[in-house]
Amino acid sequence: MNNEKKIPYKIYLEENEMPTQYYNVRADMKKKPAPMLNPATLQPVTEADLTPVFCEELVKQELDNDTPYFDIPQEIQDFYKMYRPSPLVRAYCLEEKLQTPAKIYYKFEGNNTSGSHKLNSAITQAYYAKKQGLKGVTTETGAGQWGTALSMACAYLGLDCNVYMVKVSYEQKPFRREVMRTYGANVTASPSNTTEIGKKILAEHPGTTGSLGCAISEAVEAALSKDGYRYVLGSVLSQVVLHQSVIGLEAKAAMDKYGISPDIIIGCAGGGSNLGGLISPFMGEKLRGEKDYRFIAVEPASCPSLTRGKYAYDFCDTGKVTPMAKMYTLGSGFIPSPNHAGGLRYHGMSPILSELYDQGMMEARSYEQTEVFKAASDFARVEGILPAPESSHAIKAAIDEALHCKETGEEKTILFGLTGTGYFDLKAYEQFNDGTMNDYVPTDEDLQIGFDSLPSVER
To answer: 312: helix, coil or strand?
Structure first.
């Protein structure tokens, strides 16, 4: 117990202890993620395929499966100091409330105006766009956290920022939209009439609430149709997991200072950026045979790509204009219910995480949204942070694991990612508090519609 008393409620690193390199977990994977494919040729994509869409330096990062570390440019390190290092928090109050012998820690990424971890990659992608001499970037956003983060990064660097926001979130979260506009971004509800693919989707699905797949299609089309623009994105691709490794590197450095080693590491999973970033350095140790950890990915039951999806090649967008990726997917045609975890509504999962899950290196589970909001409410009442609905999936799993330890008497150490705050999600909290929130779990027949849209690729 004496050692335990030395662990503060919040562990902060000094600025000179922040990571100066990103860690690429692919370098330690014996079986690499399957390559993305050019949809026209069904051959692995090349730099030449991707550079019309993405920034040149980011393409190199995307295709590099072997370099273990990438230097973080000094300008990005300086920007990070505005809100990093972020705290690693010992959830003493939650432990007391649960009366569990487990020790619970969370890495809190909500200490910036974007309200989430998304800024870690937004500034990096914007930096390389600026360095390339581009005028601006286009992107999609679900809950709005990525769009907000990119708006901030573009404002800082003087880049134009065009955001296609999933229509249901555009309508549910007008204040998130206004933060983006305050930072100078142009925000369009997707699907829209401003792109050919948007018009096509609206014609086929009148009144649709949209999806991240739709918004990606529009953002890619917009980037390709304007000189001096490229497309950037907040999750799924390997470059984003690479940038988000700062989360896990900081968490591991903070734990190492106090001789703490987690037994279980938990993150919410939509496209995979925060989960991949949090687990990367720990997964590296597991892949190298140095240590063992349990990794748990948590997703909404309404969009269950890992727990009920298929591991197959699929388009990353609804309009089928992007390269195909091998991932756990519900099909690019899957339109999820308008649940409130907007950042977890993507039809597929990061190819890195998909491959690790397929190898049995991590577990996955899904929860319905009412039980997730119950966990969020319980957490807010004892830890003093109003969590984002996305993050609350990880909270729910952490509570479940802690209660299991209470039953068994095990003193396990649990680490989870608290990706952001829920102050723009009060409409959802209102529905939960009023008792009007519904759960929606797609039937096998519902999912089959998405699976029927999977391309036939023999590889």
So the answer is: strand
Report whether 319 contacts 359 (CB < 8 A).
no
Residue type, 260: I
Tokens of 55: 């920034």
Helix (H) or strand (E) holding 299: strand 294-300
Tell me if 321 sits within 8 A of 223, measured CB to CB. Answer: no
The tokens of 83 are what?
Answer: 């809100």
Q: Are 323 and 45 in contact (CB under 8 A)?
A: yes
Count of CB atoms situated within 10 Å of the CB of 373:
25
Q: What is the CA radius of gyration of the chain?
A: 20
Q: Which CATH number fits domain 135-227: 3.40.50.300, 3.40.50.2300, 3.40.50.2000, 3.40.50.1100?
A: 3.40.50.1100
For every one of its 459 residues, what pLDDT tens digit does the chain have, with 9 covering 90 and above?
344 558 999 999 999 999 999 999 999 999 999 999 999 999 999 999 999 999 999 999 999 999 999 999 999 999 999 999 999 999 999 999 999 999 999 999 999 988 999 999 999 999 999 999 999 999 999 888 999 999 999 999 999 999 999 998 898 888 999 999 999 999 999 999 999 999 999 999 998 988 888 899 999 999 999 999 999 999 999 999 999 999 999 999 999 999 999 999 999 999 999 999 999 999 999 999 999 999 999 999 999 999 999 999 999 888 888 899 999 999 988 877 766 666 677 899 999 999 999 999 999 999 999 999 999 999 999 999 999 999 999 999 999 999 999 999 999 999 999 999 999 889 899 999 999 999 999 999 999 999 998 998 876
Which option is the CATH number for 84-115+246-453: 3.40.50.1100, 1.10.10.10, 1.10.3720.10, 3.10.310.10?
Answer: 3.40.50.1100
Kindly give, in sequence order, each residue whose CB lies less than 8 Å from that of residue 92, ignoring residues fewer than 6 positions away: 9
pTM given for the model: 0.95
Domain layout of the chain by residue ranges:
84-115+246-453, 135-227
Torsion of the alpha carbons at 15, 16, 22 and 23, rounded to the nearest 10? -110
CB atoms within 10 A of CB 412: 18
- Dist CA 376 CA 374 (whole Å): 5
Closest to 327 (Cα-Cα) out of 393, 269, 387: 269
Q: Which of 114, 129, 124 is nearest to 159 (CA)?
A: 129
What are the C-alpha distances in Å from 303 to residues 175, 212, 332? 25, 12, 12
Tokens of 314: 């699929």
Complete DSSP assignment for 382-403: HH---B-HHHHHHHHHHHHHHH
Q: Supply φ then ψ for residue 21, to 5 degrees.
A: -135, 150
